[in-house]
Amino acid sequence: MSQPAKLGSAGEDAVLAAVPKELFIGGDWREAEGGGRFPVEDPATGEALCVVADATGADARAALAAASEAQAEWASHPPRERGEILRRAFDLIASRLDELALLMTLEMGKSVAESRAEIAYANEFLRWFSEEAVRIDGRYSVSPNGAGRLITMRQPVGPCLLITPWNFPLAMGTRKVGPAIAAGCTMVVKPAMQTPLSMLAFAAILAEAGLPAGVLNVITTSHSGEVMDPLFDDERLRKLSFTGSTEVGRRLAARAMDRVLRVSMELGGNAPFIVFADADLDAAVDGAMIAKLRNVGEACTAANRFHVAAPLAEQFAERLAARMQGLRLGRGTEPDVDLGPLINATQREKVHELVLDATARGARLLTGGELPDGRGYFYPPTVLSDVPADSRLLTEEIFGPVAPIVAFERDEEAIAAANETEYGLVAYIYTRQLDRALRVAEALESGMIGLNQGMVSNPAAPFGGVKQSGFGREGGHEGMQEYLATKYVALAL
Ligand code: NAP
Asked: What is the pTM of this model?
């Protein structure tokens, strides 16, 4: 990955050839035990791009052993130096944005423009946590009876297991790896099998930036459950940070409790997007385009359902449908493509099934809703209005470019509908009245609120959910705390 690649077919081969395809354990690139490999697919064609090492349980244990061996030395590494390694990695990524964006598009499908945006966002976590590394502090206080002193210190939690999903192949990694490095933790990282290449490229960059051997270890596997499970019984593991579906997160959280591990969970969402009668309609439609279509709708923060005040509902639906109709579907590497394919056939079938379920119940299809011919897992931007309350589109995470619209009469009705879900990650509110905005923001059961904006993600902000969207926060000052443990020293004077 030393030379920035140019976009185009020669660039694709060069970029793919430059990524290491092995496991990264103890500072070395190595084959999986037994030499197994699995293919990484291009979702725009359904064809294999390359093969990567398919780790076994023994490889996973070797990765944790390497992390455990490196832990004490890494924890005592000067915070300034830990921060400087992150900062060097930030500079390297910024200088290779084009080739990393192309790589991400090849394995994940979204347009190169979107991949560039993700890489810039992902990289900001490195810059943010490079600055946070030197701000780990403690407390000194007088005990209430005056007879003693209370000292607290913040120390690294220890070796962590970091598991990331396919939808943001780099950002979901840097959001964990950045604070872990800054805090002085070592780690085993497991990217999703659909998108291991961005993480492998990132590991190579961290090594180039001077990260000592064993601090970061990367396992790629096509059998995640079986391969990772033994780590949960291993005394050396101290923390699990997981981003993925609520279904898998629930199981892994339960498993982690067998050994009372520290746990952070960033899980699924079902974000309501509420447009009140006093909203700026143009701004709401602009925000809806971002909240719905960023990452082809494959985002935990994607607006999943649109609750629009009855007087605006028709106009909002028509304008959103008109904007979505004009978008161009295509392989993410082609110029001027707005929307790439979905990640795989299963995901596309699920999205289509949800649309068919809603239309069968009486929803009105304004645009999209038909499976395109040809190869790749494309799905057209789709808008449905008058979506009945019992439609699966409103209760399940869609993870695709489909916008179901429901009209409401009273604020309380919209709030109740928004909260009627097991999820609580993010909600979007469009209103020009400050008192309404604050009243609704307080009433919504959600970890994050987008107020008159369609995107909340920001490395300086505490990202995370309530209810079954998870617990713990990533980014912001809070993101560091997930990797630190408090020790209290009682002192008699
Ligand atoms: P997923 O199926 O839950 O997988 C997430 C990760 O867990 C992948 O690396 C997966 O590996 C791994 N995994 C699955 N089963 C495992 C097991 N038994 N043991 C260890 N690892 C296991 O989720 P996904 O389909 O990749 O991602 C989409 C989901 O992530 C959506 O629900 C989305 O909302 C959520 N998400 C949440 C956030 C957030 O911050 N809240 C951000 C992004 C995405 P393999 O795929 O290789 O099996």
From this structure: 0.97
